[in-house]
Amino acid sequence: MVRDIIEVAGSTKGLSIFVQAVKAAGLEEKLRSKGPFTVFAPTDDAFKKIPAGMAAVESLLKNKQKLTTLLYHHILTGQHSTGQLANVHTVKTVQGEKITIDVVGGKVKVMGAKLMQPDIRAQNGVIHAIDTVILNVA
After folding, report:
1. Under a CB-based contact definition with an 8 Å cutoff, are residues 16 and 47 in contact?
2. pLDDT tens-digit series, residues 35-71
3. Of 106, 108, 110, 121, which residue is the least packed, with the fewest Cβ within 10 Å?
4. Which among 121, 126, 97 has a CA at the least distance from the CA of 111?
5. Domain count of the chain?
6. What distance in Å separates the CA atoms of residue 41 and residue 110, rounded to the nearest whole number?
7. What pLDDT does residue 1 have?
8. What angle do CA 45, 58, 76 make, to 5 degrees?
């Protein structure tokens, strides 16, 4: 059985808050659609590192507009593997904002976030689990 980004993220250890956030923002249908998408999915630990920790996360989950904007910082149109990302300096999010890609010590970083679990494949794209929530973009 081929699974979409939401199903794959839901079965990937450490991405439960990300999946909860996607559903709370109303983006579940989009990430189940044909795509393809590249998703930089913050791990549960990444969400807990947001200033004010879980209290901030719980507040964010109740603010659909802010949550949607935040999650769009983590989604690209098209499927981009780690190898492809290593060869570019910037990419555009689904909303047209630019985020930076750097290779430090042979490791790809997105806006300073480390790829903890890269290249998690889904039928409609790829997920890269990252260690930091992308809060600000250019």
Report:
1. no
2. 999 999 999 999 988 887 667 778 888 999 989 999 9
3. 106
4. 97
5. 1
6. 11
7. 53
8. 60
Average pLDDT, the chain: 92
3-state secondary structure of 75: strand
**Domain presence at residue 83:** yes
The single-letter code of the amino acid at 87 is: N
Whether the pLDDT of residue 138 is over 60: the answer is no
What tokens were used for 96? Answer: 């047209």
Whether 106 maps to a domain, the answer reads yes
Residue 46 lies in a domain: yes
Range of the domain at 111: 5-130
Structural domain contains residue 55: yes
| Percentage of the chain lying above the pLDDT 90 cut | 78
Beta-carbon contacts of residue 100 (< 8 Å; ≥ 6 apart): 89, 90, 110, 111, 138
- Residue 127 pLDDT greater than 80, yes or no: yes
Name the amino acid, one letter, at 117. Answer: Q
| Residue 2: per-residue pLDDT | 65
pLDDT value, residue 125: 96
5-to-58, 74, 77, 137 alpha-carbon distances in Å: 23, 13, 13, 23
